[in-house]
Amino acid sequence: MRELLLSELQVLQRTEHKNLMPVVEILEDNNDFFLICELATGKDLQHRLESVTTFSEKQAAIIIKQVLEGLNYMHKMGVMHRDIKPANILMNSRD
To answer: Which residue among 29, 32, 83, 95 is the active-site one?
Structure first.
């Protein structure tokens, strides 16, 4: 199990796409893995949707396009994301 998880994390570390958060380093102790990633100060999409009163179709289209581009890149690498939801989509900034 540990080897499978480490293998998946190493695949993420090798990804280079503008719409995917880069994994800079993978650390582990006796019980856990720790991912060192770039700072994303915009929280996640779930929080963003809960904090605004309006969200335009244009804004939604931009985000969905970015998500689909990232997923397409990962699928071409043979990687599948099995938990796509707003809480798992991180925003780079508060803008």
So the answer is: 83
Reference 85, options 59, 60, 67; nearest CA is 67
> Which tokens is 71 given?
């997923």
The yes-or-no answer on residue 29 being catalytic is no
Q: How far apart are CA 5 and CA 13, in angstroms?
A: 12
Entry pTM: 0.82
Q: What is the DSSP letter of 18?
A: T
d(C-alpha 9, C-alpha 63), whole Å: 24
30-88 pLDDT per residue, tens: 989 899 998 888 899 999 999 999 989 999 999 999 999 999 999 998 888 889 999 99
Nearest to 80 by CA among 3, 12, 4: 12
Domains of the chain, with CATH numbers?
Answer: 2-88 (3.30.200)
